[in-house]
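pinging the channel bc i need a second pair of eyes. not urgent but kinda urgent?? the chain im working w is below, pasted from the shared doc
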Amino acid sequence: MRDVELEGEPPIQVALRRSGRAKRYGLRVSRLDGRVTLTVPTRGSEREALAFLREKESWVRAQVAQLVVAQIVGIGDRIPVEGRPARLVRTEARRGGLVGDFIEVPERVAAPGAYVAGLLKAEARERLTEASLDYAAQVGRKVSGITLKDTRSRWGSCSSAGRLMYSWRLIMAPPEVLDYVAAHEVAHLVEMNHSAAYWRVVADICPDYARHRAWLRQEGAGLHRYRFKD
C-alpha cells in the first residue's frame, strides 16, 4: 500500500501492507533493521488500520527503543568471537588472524571490516563442519554439503538432500550455541519436521539445547548489528 508516519518524538515510518492471509490487523517491528510494518486484511480499511496503529503506539515506541544501533566495524572496535570480545588491531606482519583477544589486521589491508568478515567466515566453516559431522555420526546420517550465508531470518536449515546451511555469524556466539544450531540442523537429517520425535533427537545429541536456544532468542539479533563493509 504505502508508508505512513506515526507522529510524535521521534516520528516513526510505518509500512502498510495488505495481506489476503491476514484475518486481523497486526504490527511487527523488525529486530534487524527496525522496520515497522502494519498488516491490513484484504477487507480491512486504512482508517481502521491507522486507528489500530495509534492504539498500539506505546507498544511500537517501546519496541523501537529496544533496538540495537548498527555498528560499522573498524580498527579499535571490539566484536564478539565465540562469545568473547576481541579487539581489531593493526599488525606489521604480512598475515593477520585471531590471536587471543585480538584480531590482527595487516597494515596493507585497506578494508579491515571485509578482512575480518573473511576471517570469521573461515573460522565458522571449520567449527560448523566439525560440529555437523560429529553430530551426523551420532545419529548415523551423512551430510552432503555445508553452505555459509549471512542470513537474517534463520540461523540454519537442512534440505531433504542432506545439505546444511548456516549463518556464518554463529562464530560470534558462544561455542555451545553454535554447537546447538549444528545439532538442530543435523537432527533434521533424521526428522524433517519439528515434531516431538524431532526434539527427542535434538535432546539426545544436545541435552541442554533449551538454554542455548533461549540465548539465540534473546541475544541472537545483536549479532546482526555489526557491519563489515567499509
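so The first strand starts at residue 3 and ends at 6. and The CA atoms of residues 6 and 12 lie 5 Å apart. — does that match what u expected or am i reading it wrong
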